[in-house]
Amino acid sequence: MKTYTICGSMRFEQEMKEIAFFLETQKGFNILQCIYTDREVREEEKQRLAAAHYRKIDLSDGIYVVNIGGYIGESVAAEIDYAKNQGKEIYYHCKNNE
What we know:
Structural class: alpha/beta
Order of helices and strands: EHEHEHE
Shape: globular
Largest sheet: 4 strands, parallel
Number of strands: 4
Oligomer: single chain
Helix content: 40-55%
Distance between the termini: 33 Å
Radius of gyration: 13 Å
Low-confidence stretches: none
Number of helices: 3
């Protein structure tokens, strides 16, 4: 069973949850994803969450990029570069917002 980390803008939070569910239940992948919270996150917490997310990439076979409407922000672009440098597989979930 392959393991993938979901990478995408938090504006796609709900879509990332649904995609993770699909990938685990229909494709048989093990999916790692970020922590979702409605509360205010302090800067030091953001840094810890980012470090944890990069560690998830380290533990994964690859990343699954959720880029709805073609949107990839700075953080996700950095995660893609990191994954490439680590020799990870990279898949893109392209979906237009139409």
